[in-house]
Amino acid sequence: MNILLVEDDEFKEERIVNFICEKITSANVDISRSVYSAIQFTKSQIYDFVILDMALPGHDISVGSGPASSLPAGGLHVALELDFAGRKDKIVVVTQYPDIEVDGELIETLSAVEKLQDSISPHIVSTVYYDNKRDDWQKSLLTTLSENK
Question: pTM for the full model?
Answer without folding.
Answer: 0.92
